[in-house]
Amino acid sequence: MANTTWTRNHVLSLSDFTPDEYNTVLQTAASFSEVLSRRTKKVPTLQGQVVANLFFESSTRTRSSFELAAKRLSADTLNFAAATSSLTKGETILDTAKTYLAMGTDMMVIRHKESGVPSAIAQEMDRLGVKVGVLNAGDGQHEHPSQGLLDLFTICTLLNPQEPRLELLAGKKIAIVGDILHSRVARSNIWSLTASGAEVHLAAPPTLLPKLFADYGIGTGKLFLHWQIEPALQNADFVMTLRLQKERMTSHLLPSLREYHQLFGITRDRLQLCQPNVKVLHPGPVNRGVEISSDLMDDPDFSLISQQVTSGVAVRMALLYLMGSGKAGNSL
Amino acid sequence: MANTTWTRNHVLSLSDFTPDEYNTVLQTAASFSEVLSRRTKKVPTLQGQVVANLFFESSTRTRSSFELAAKRLSADTLNFAAATSSLTKGETILDTAKTYLAMGTDMMVIRHKESGVPSAIAQEMDRLGVKVGVLNAGDGQHEHPSQGLLDLFTICTLLNPQEPRLELLAGKKIAIVGDILHSRVARSNIWSLTASGAEVHLAAPPTLLPKLFADYGIGTGKLFLHWQIEPALQNADFVMTLRLQKERMTSHLLPSLREYHQLFGITRDRLQLCQPNVKVLHPGPVNRGVEISSDLMDDPDFSLISQQVTSGVAVRMALLYLMGSGKAGNSL
Amino acid sequence: MANTTWTRNHVLSLSDFTPDEYNTVLQTAASFSEVLSRRTKKVPTLQGQVVANLFFESSTRTRSSFELAAKRLSADTLNFAAATSSLTKGETILDTAKTYLAMGTDMMVIRHKESGVPSAIAQEMDRLGVKVGVLNAGDGQHEHPSQGLLDLFTICTLLNPQEPRLELLAGKKIAIVGDILHSRVARSNIWSLTASGAEVHLAAPPTLLPKLFADYGIGTGKLFLHWQIEPALQNADFVMTLRLQKERMTSHLLPSLREYHQLFGITRDRLQLCQPNVKVLHPGPVNRGVEISSDLMDDPDFSLISQQVTSGVAVRMALLYLMGSGKAGNSL
């Protein structure tokens, strides 16, 4: 398993990922997908190392995916959930992280409702001169890089199962539809997809897609904003829908879920606008009948939603492996 | 370890268990009891497999028992608790189960306050054509099959420690006393005990034992209903008490816990009616002084309550082993 | 690893610890510190054994430390949190403990907000004649012995990294500052430090340091009480600060956090009173700027707070090893 190019201690954002780094993750994840198809889906790579899942914001799905990835690499895992934590006792987040460091944690997977928390912890680890890797598992409205990478892996694996590479996306048209304003998933995807050379089309009601998003595409010429869904779907190869938080309505950004579905929901009819073999992605959990019609979600000819979840474990194994092996000289 | 007769992918109910299946579980659990008496209580049977405990209704006791059973088979475990889950985010239960499937879960242990949820998930797994076993860990007022099997194992092991078999119960009189109407434990026990050829006597106040329960015994001639406790206890070999939910009083099904204890509580005096070597079971957690007098619960001459907990780990190891080995050709 | 002197089944309190026992823990923890510096920080000592963390009072920090200690000894762990437990269903605490016993638990780590609960459970285990070790992880305002031992280990290791021994503290002056009245940490530390032959000086406002604390030092001649901080700090070699519960103010024991910091907070200025190479300890979590000034907490020349957390894992491994090896004849 080649990882000669990997020098990154932390994975906090995709904004500065290089094509080499994307491809190293894709190839490493492909190797782990092979491991996961074996009868015994476990490798001893990270035996004796500790991965702490520090979830200051609750998430069953992402936490389980990281926990399983760590266990399949034979790491020990510690789970921290904010609800039962010292945070309620007045400890700062940096102090919590330093406590886990002092216990002997090798890698920290961090989710927080505030943007920037994983970066702040990573900076503190670097300042202290310790080799502890920090993985951003979602921070506020900033980024969710492992989700961006698993979406990329899902698409590239579909295009070339043996050799998924970033370059496979060049010239493809990808629509991202939904609550882009509040979505850390969308932000991470915009970085990876524009880096691949794909055309990225964002579509949302104006309240959920401010003009400033055009700035993400500066220099690439590959990012387009739409306040209707049709131009985004036109001839698209892939459609990424985003989860709609129901809280958005109470804050008057949306009139109703029903109206949202009528205007921006992904339906079989709307997919007629796309390429014939178009595929739909969603980071989950899905509000059936809101972001996507229920029958479409379950149709394996169109939906990649299950593959995304499966890719998640392989990609997270790859990230933990790359971050952990840099430190300890492990081999697969 | 013989399991030639086992073809069942899921364990959802005891209503259609065959005598061969009961005996396969009993014999396999007996083998695991032997493992649990070793110094190192672990076997590598399910190494690299993943058991997900999806507890949509909280339960420390049953969840710990399944978790320990899985760990002693060397499986990796994922714990899901409803309180911190995507359910609060609007995801359907089937979608949650499919997410765990896509992550690579091999077996799902499911508890839910609604009857039928584990069956619905099992049907969905079958529809998808995947070999994922579903184990009902208690659904509403429907069934709790692993509890029924561990009660059976506890009794049969007492009668013949080396070779616990269903047939040992033929002709025995077993009383089930308490809140039968709301008890999934009672329903599972009625299936297994009537299948064994035992005489099963249900006793409860009329509000907690509707006449329709007689239907469970149709064709067996072995099920009897009583609205007083005495005829049920008369010459009984085993007395199973059921947990009384305190909520039953607020819904006016019971006048008071004290009156319930006076009329249906198991006491040393009442046990005089039974066979001299009568034993008492309770699925736990116990309300001391309500379903059973406190001193009786702690008397090893009468109480099998601790043995039931111990049996629980062995029986759950047996179920996970049988369900997992059918898939992967594992051997003990 | 010599542990010829260890005969203790339970660790509930330091009040009756002998110098031999202190030194056995210190030496065993020193051996495990060496294990923790290896690349693979895991030993097979407790493989196949089960450590149940029964936290009736929530604590992320202590629970994670015990969990990691158990995992590094290759034990399986079960976590119990009161919030989701049968306690809400009316089960007694002893019955909960007996349930975990019946499942096959080898050691129980117990935290409870009431003093005496771990002792009550230990007595029950002894009464039942079972070899299950009980470890007090903090009970009410009684004791927190593993914290006392890790503090001792942290100090002794500083004085002699190769051979930490109790006797190294003879003649040292140690100040304990803060909410001594409510602190189980202070009580455990008073036992170990007076046993070592150190001079122990307690300092707190009168509402948080009643005169009866002098009784702890009866016969030792080494315990001193102060209602101002200065005499306690004068020439001190070590300063132990205690966490201040914010609830203390609402119960009118303190005027304000700010005033507390002005009178009893540890600051760079105040440390001028101490020995030049004085070190500061805190059991965490810290209220920065209350018990200790923020810059001091982060200054590795003065603060031992990180080392305390690291020591915690080694000391808890030592305790689990000593309690477990007595039973099963394990060797490291």
From TrEMBL, chains A, B, C:
Biological-process GO terms, alphabetical: 'de novo' pyrimidine nucleobase biosynthetic process; 'de novo' UMP biosynthetic process; amino acid metabolic process
Catalytic reaction equation(s): carbamoyl phosphate + L-aspartate = N-carbamoyl-L-aspartate + phosphate + H(+)
A family per Pfam: OTCace
Molecular functions (GO terms): amino acid binding; aspartate carbamoyltransferase activity
Alphabetical list of InterPro entries matching this protein: Asp/Orn_carbamoyltranf_P-bd, Asp/Orn_carbamoylTrfase, Asp/Orn_carbamoylTrfase_sf, Asp_carbamoyltransf, Asp_carbamoyltransf_Asp/Orn-bd
Function: Catalyzes the condensation of carbamoyl phosphate and aspartate to form carbamoyl aspartate and inorganic phosphate, the committed step in the de novo pyrimidine nucleotide biosynthesis pathway.
Name by which UniProt lists this protein: Aspartate carbamoyltransferase
Organism of derivation: Aliterella atlantica CENA595
Gene, per the UniProt record: pyrB
